[in-house]
Specification:
72 residues, 69% helix
Length: 72
Amino acid sequence: MITDIPNIRPAFLSADTYSLLNNLRGFRHFFRHAYGATIEYEQLKGNLKKSLKLLVYLETDLQQFMTRLSEG
């Protein structure tokens, strides 16, 4: 999704968006498999901030993707 595929489609996600998604995916994996583990409030707060930033990144990436599709 971060790589252009010539003659097929442009990249959909920027490297920054991918990095945030991957980071949040790591937390999700931990959360789903860490039965009984205590999750720190600051960690949750940090992930919320990342999620809010991710929303803006995804909106930008989608707009750029649609523009590049219409140009091609």
